[in-house]
Each structure stands twice: as structure tokens, then as C-alpha cells.
């Protein structure tokens, strides 16, 4: 005897297939509750069950008073590589960056993190990470000028990658330490670069990058657009 499939599952599968075929794109509004009730001959409760499941699974999101929409595809960080660019490429994204600034600065707190004198000059590289032409992250990296000069750091404009720039000058990262938190973005420049509103919460990541001798190469701070970024960690017993 053929098992009957629940109507809400049929609605869910039809919406998912429409997303996979590209008929429904990120940001598109899906049919309203009343339209789906009539189309499938079901109750409002059944439609709401389908919507709730798809929202919980990350396919849709609801906006009160406006309707239900297809979510943007998130960048899922699997923490399988110390290079975020490599992970994006593995997931099939077209990547690029906008160089915001490359300059020499002094900062006693960051100098302490980098284990150099408090008045030492540092190279500060600020850039916007793009994936499929969408701004998803704002990176600020600090490197001691003893390891990378300002002139050398400027080559990021042609390499389009800080880690390729490192490799060009024999700085080879072998491991990193990252700290994740949620932080509101208050810097107007960062907000503008990511097209976000003031006070918008983000994933905030502090990263320290080390070489094979356990010497620190880079200290970085990154704001990730929360709508485009998530982290998955596999843990074995």
C-alpha cells in the first residue's frame, strides 16, 4: 500500500525544488499563505507548518507584515583551511576583494599582541571580502614591518590575497588561533562597505596567525555579515 505524503511536506518539497531550479532566487517573495491554501487545498495550519519548517532549515525567512522570502545562501565555514578564500573557492564561489587601505600605523595594544615594541610601526591592511560580487566581510590585518614592509604589503593590490602576498615574501602561515563573538558594528566605514545599518550585529572574529616556529605573523579582526556567514564544527568522540 502506497504511503500517503503529508500536504505540508509536498509544499516544502515544491518550494525547495523551485529554489534549486532557480525559479525562486534569494530575496524573492514566495506565494502567500492564502495563495498556497487555495493551490494545495489545505488549511492555514498546514501552510504555516511548511513555512516554519523551511524557515528552521534556512530556506526561507519571514518579515512581519510583508511576507515570506527566500534566504541568501550563507558561506558555511567548515574550519577546514586556514584560508577563508580557499574554503569559499571549494564551495564554488567567485571571490574577489576591495582594498580599502594599506598603510603604516602604530598601536601599542596590537604591537603587544605581535610581540614587538609598543612604538613599532605596523602595516595595516583593510579590505572587503566579496563572494559572488556580494560584500560579506570586512578584514583588518596588522603585520609588523619587521616581517612585511609597507611596499611589500602594497602587492596585495595585484596578488588579490594577503596570504599570496605572505608567500611572495616567504611568510608561511601554518596555524591560526581564532576567537568568535557577536558584536555590533559601530564603525561607519565598515557599515557602508558591507551595506549595513548602524548597530547591526555581526560575527566578530579575532585571528592570530603563526608560522612553523610558532612566531606570530598577523593579528586580524574581521566583521562578517551575519546574513552570509555561519560556522560548522565537526566533533568526534
Structure overview:
The protein is α+β, with helices and mostly antiparallel strands. A six-stranded antiparallel β-sheet has the order 4-5-6-9-8-7. Strand 1 and strand 2 form a beta hairpin. Helix 2 crosses helix 3. The radius of gyration is 23 Å and the shape is elongated. The model has no long low-confidence stretch (mean pLDDT 86).
Describe how the helices and strands are arranged.
Blueprint: H1 7-20, H2 33-40, H3 44-56, E1 60-63, E2 67-70, E3 75-77, H4 84-90, E4 95-105, H5 108-113, E5 122-131, E6 134-144, H6 150-153, H7 156-159, H8 162-168, E7 175-184, H9 188-194, E8 201-210, E9 216-225, E10 229-231
Parallel strand pairs: 3-10
Antiparallel strand pairs: 1-2, 4-5, 5-6, 6-9, 7-8, 8-9
Provide keyphrases for this structure.
two-stranded antiparallel sheet; alpha+beta; elongated; 237 residues
Low-confidence stretches: none
Backbone shape:
elongated
- Please estimate the helix content: 25-40%
Largest sheet, strands/sense/barrel: 6 strands, antiparallel
Please give the alpha-carbon distance between the first and last residues.
41 Å
- Give the helix tally: 9
Strand order across the largest sheet: 4-5-6-9-8-7
Number of strands: 10
Rg over C-alpha atoms, rounded to the nearest angstrom = 23 Å
Can you summarize this structure?
The chain is 30% helix and 32% strand.
Amino acid at each position: 500500500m502506497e504511503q500517503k505524503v503529508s500536504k505540508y511536506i509536498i509544499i516544502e518539497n515544491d518550494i525547495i525544488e523551485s529554489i534549486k531550479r532557480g525559479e525562486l532566487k534569494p530575496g524573492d517573495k514566495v506565494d502567500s499563505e492564502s495563495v498556497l491554501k487555495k493551490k494545495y487545498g489545505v488549511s492555514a495550519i498546514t501552510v504555516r507548518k511548511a513555512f516554519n519548517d523551511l524557515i528552521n532549515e534556512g530556506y526561507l525567512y519571514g518579515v512581519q507584515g510583508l511576507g515570506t522570502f527566500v534566504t541568501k545562501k550563507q558561506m558555511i565555514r567548515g574550519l577546514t583551511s586556514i584560508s577563508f578564500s580557499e574554503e569559499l573557492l571549494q564551495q564554488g564561489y567567485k571571490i574577489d576583494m576591495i582594498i580599502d587601505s594599506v598603510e603604516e600605523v602604530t598601536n601599542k595594544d596590537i604591537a603587544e599582541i605581535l610581540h614587538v615594541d609598543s612604538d613599532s610601526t605596523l602595516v595595516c591592511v583593510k579590505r572587503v571580502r566579496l563572494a559572488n560580487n556580494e560584500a560579506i566581510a570586512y578584514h583588518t590585518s596588522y603585520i609588523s614591518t619587521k616581517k612585511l614592509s609597507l611596499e611589500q604589503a602594497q602587492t596585495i593590490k595585484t596578488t588579490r590575497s594577503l596570504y599570496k602576498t605572505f608567500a611572495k615574501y616567504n611568510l608561511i602561515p601554518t596555524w591560526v588561533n581564532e576567537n568568535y563573538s557577536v558584536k555590533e558594528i559601530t564603525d561607519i566605514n565598515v557599515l557602508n562597505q558591507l551595506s549595513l545599518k548602524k548597530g547591526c550585529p555581526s560575527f566578530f572574529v579575532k585571528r592570530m596567525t603563526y608560522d612553523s616556529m610558532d612566531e606570530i605573523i598577523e593579528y586580524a579582526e574581521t566583521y562578517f555579515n551575519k546574513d552570509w556567514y555561519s560556522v560548522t564544527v565537526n566533533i568526534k568522540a
